[in-house]
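Researcher: We plan to redesign the surface later, but first we want a full-length starting point. Tokens attached.
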């Protein structure tokens, strides 16, 4: 776990800082230090004006650009007149490009990784005929006229081949759009309401029907309730307390009503049936990857075809993060259950190295790193960008004193977040 975390973060941090470095050098700025990892310094070498070094704490990195108020808070040089090679001597638009260089490289990295994974491994999908247990509906699906157990046969009179075609805009937005479903052995027509877009704007409404999914336990996350209860990969959960479980949505419903409470899992493990006591998390989760048992198929792509698919997957990570933060701010999800530090990230990698899984996680982290760095917090790239955009618009630069104090405030916020995330990881491991 630790090795995968360190290698993954080293790749991403190195590329992120290289984005700042290349942009700064292109515009003639002097880069005093390029560091992978935080101090103390382990080793390095000075080449030209730049000291390239490896720090002892492998959870980040930085470039120190002459004439810039950064996380080093070294402001001695700012007391002198600006020199032509300094960051502060350059036009605001050039400084803005330098600030966004790291985020840009991380976004490109995420797109490249997801594109190559799609090209090499293909894309898993569920053939419509494989959804043999019918669908599970949410509130919007029931309002549209779907019922649990319906088997979707056709969309707008066209036979359904890929289950995901149910959600295609062309299907939903067609004039007099309809679904044909099999219900109790007979065909039934479900009409799509004219105001469907308004209904789908509700939280968690987009997947108005989902295939009923038999499942077994996949990888178990260390330190989470599933691991503490003794669940193993390959186990099949047959019950929660007295509630029988056959499909994943039934497990979700049972756990949701027992958040933060003790429960007993009935588990089939080979020929054995076990009773495992478990303390369900406050988030209503057990902490394991779900291995679906419906027969998924794989769609192969050429490199050119994989580019838009990989790009959509990469930006889907950012969309998911925005939704997650929105839930936290609305009080619909707890920060402690949603945020992870280095230990939590290491647990996501797992204790076994699988190339596809490793690179998919690195791709996700690259997009998360881009998203987090764009947050308008002083000390992050997004905070610097906000001040630079202000300068471009009003044609007046914030004072060095203001920037220095803003940097200090941002550093306090970031350190507090890091302490919270790390402490949260330790709490999850202990309790």
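Model: Full-length starting sequence:
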């Amino acid at each position: 776990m630790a090795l995968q975390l360190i290698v993954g973060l080293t790749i991403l941090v190195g590329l992120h800082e290289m984005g700042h470095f290349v942009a700064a050098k292109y515009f003639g700025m002097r880069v005093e230090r390029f560091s992978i990892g935080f101090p103390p310094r382990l080793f390095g070498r000075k080449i030209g004006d730049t000291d390239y070094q490896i720090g002892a704490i492998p959870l980040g990195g930085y470039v120190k650009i002459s004439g810039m108020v950064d996380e080093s808070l070294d402001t001695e040089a700012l007391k002198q007149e600006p020199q032509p090679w300094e960051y502060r001597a350059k036009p605001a638009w050039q400084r803005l490009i330098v600030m966004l260089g790291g985020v840009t490289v991380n976004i490109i990295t995420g797109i490249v990784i997801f594109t190559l994974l799609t090209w090499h491994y293909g894309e898993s999908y569920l053939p419509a005929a494989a959804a043999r247990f019918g669908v599970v509906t949410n509130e919007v699906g029931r309002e549209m006229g779907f019922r649990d157990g319906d088997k979707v046969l056709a969309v707008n009179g066209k036979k359904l081949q890929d289950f995901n075609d149910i959600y295609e805009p062309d299907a939903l937005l067609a004039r007099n759009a309809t679904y044909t479903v099999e219900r109790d052995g007979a065909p039934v027509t479900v009409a799509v309401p004219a105001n469907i877009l308004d209904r789908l704007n509700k939280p968690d409404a987009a997947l108005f029907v989902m295939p009923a999914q038999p499942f077994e336990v996949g990888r178990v996350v260390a330190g989470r309730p599933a691991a503490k209860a003794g669940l193993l990969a390959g186990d099949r959960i047959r019950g929660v307390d007295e509630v029988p479980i056959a499909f994943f949505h039934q497990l979700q419903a049972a756990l949701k009503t027992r958040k933060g409470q003790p429960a007993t899992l009935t588990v089939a493990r080979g020929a054995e049936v076990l009773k495992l006591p478990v303390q369900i998390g406050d988030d209503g989760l057990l902490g394991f990857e779900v291995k679906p048992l419906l027969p998924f198929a794989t769609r192969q792509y050429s490199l050119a075809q994989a580019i838009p698919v990989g790009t959509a997957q990469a930006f889907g990570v950012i969309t998911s993060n925005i939704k997650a933060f929105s839930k936290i701010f609305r009080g619909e999800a707890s920060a402690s259950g949603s945020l992870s530090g280095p230990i939590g990230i290491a647990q996501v990698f797992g204790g076994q190295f699988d190339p596809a899984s490793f690179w998919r996680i690195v791709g996700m982290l690259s997009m998360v790193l881009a998203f987090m760095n764009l947050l308008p917090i002083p000390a992050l790239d997004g905070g610097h960008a906000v001040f630079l955009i202000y300068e471009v618009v009003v044609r007046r630069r914030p004072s060095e004193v203001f920037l220095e104090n803003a940097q200090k405030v941002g550093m306090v916020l970031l350190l507090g977040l890091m302490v919270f995330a790390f402490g949260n990881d330790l709490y999850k491991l202990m309790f």
